[in-house]
Design brief:
Layout lengths: L3 H10 L3 E4 L2 H9 L7 E3 L4 H11 L2 E4 L5 H16 L3 E3 L1 H10 L11
Parallel strand pairs: 1-2, 1-3, 3-4
Length: about 110
Amino acid sequence: MKSLEEWVEKLKEADKTIVVEGVRDKIALGKLGIPGKRIVFLDGPLYKIVENVYKREKDCILLLDLDKEGKKLFHRLRHDLQHFGVKIDHKFREFLFKETGITYIEKIKLD
């Protein structure tokens, strides 16, 4: 991936559940054309989120913010999901934060 536009296209093509922190993150991804039914946000206890994801599929994308809380949630969810055999695709999160400087998912916009 070389641009944010390409990142969005690849995210659209990835047929995986996407986990985000909050409803504003889900709305921001929806505005980029990501189907809402693929997006899970943290609206309850983490163990329920983990259960919801691993019952849906065996691959997921974690798009959590790169602030202190987001990093903590990322590591916890990655650990718990992997425990249940879910493969974590973190290339989208890594690209976003390394190549764009965006630290909050809700701030993603294409101009």
